[in-house]
Specification:
single chain, 261 residues, alpha+beta, five-stranded mixed beta barrel, two-stranded antiparallel ribbon, 32% helix, 21% strand
Length: 261
């Protein structure tokens, strides 16, 4: 709910609620009460401003959130934004379940992750699949938005576990930060995308899969049979052959030789 718009910048100040009706919770209140936000100093004084000021004083007294002076030093994260040698990091971590937070979703098959507690920031391409992508000119392939939204609603800003299965970067190639891997917790998002017709199998990275590749192919076959999204116009080989037989016509133009036995 927008409360105020700043005239010069056009920025909107709003109250954000989780839930609806009597069960709704104001996120603004929670942030101040739990010590993760402070109130702005302004000349406006009313009952609402007084409540927020009171909650901030209570958080300061309790020493929670940003008001915890003792824990401030340990709360500052040292993030490694650029991996100097992706291959070396992969060799160190490959095959291990790694905890991570999904920072953003570039497209359905590409996640930007923060590995914890190492604070390495990586780009993860999901092994064995390719989702519709977004083009540099702002356009997109069919179902690209849907695939990204499907992943965002399930994984964005969530704690997950991944397994690194490969990398396209190497020593001296710090610009290429793409790792190849799979999400194992809370579930295999790649299989979900394949089942829903929002991804295709990719042979070159299927070879790197820790999971059973046949489960990916089976999910694709089912999506094709159901003609879901990317496969809405799909026809199997038998159907194509029958169509060719029905439509094929020929006319004899010249008889070169006749042999009788």
């Amino acid at each position: 709910m927008v409360e105020h718009t700043i005239p010069i910048s056009g920025r909107e100040c709003a109250l954000v609620y989780i839930g609806t009706g009597e069960n709704s919770v104001c996120v603004n209140e929670l942030m101040v009460k739990d010590g993760w936000a402070i109130t702005r100093n302004n000349n406006k004084q009313n009952e609402e401003v007084a409540k927020y000021s009171m909650w901030m004083v209570e958080a300061q007294t309790s020493g929670i959130g940003v008001h915890n002076e003792e824990g401030k030093a340990g709360a500052i994260r040292s993030v490694n934004w650029v991996i100097e040698d992706p291959r070396m990091l992969f060799d160190e971590l490959k095959g291990q379940p790694l905890k991570a937070v999904v920072e953003s979703v570039r497209d359905g098959g590409t996640l930007r992750l923060m590995l914890v507690p190492s604070m390495n920031y990586i780009t993860l391409m999901l092994t064995g699949i390719r989702c519709p992508s977004f083009k540099p000119d702002g356009g997109s392939e069919d179902h690209a938005d849907e695939a990204r939204y499907a992943v965002e609603t399930r994984l964005l800003n969530k704690d997950i576990e991944i397994i690194l299965e490969g990398t396209s970067g190497g020593m001296g190639n710090a610009r290429n930060q793409n790792f190849v891997g799979s999400v194992v917790t809370p579930g295999n998002i790649s299989l979900f995308l394949l089942k829903e017709g929002l991804a295709r199998c990719v042979d070159w990275s299927m070879k790197l899969l820790s999971a059973d590749p046949e489960s990916y192919r089976s999910a694709t076959r089912q999506a094709k049979a159901d003609r879901k999204r990317l496969w809405k116009n799909y026809e199997d080989l038998c159907a194509q052959c029958q169509k060719i037989r029905r439509s094929s016509q020929a006319e004899l133009q010249r008889l070169l030789m006749v042999k009788c036995w």
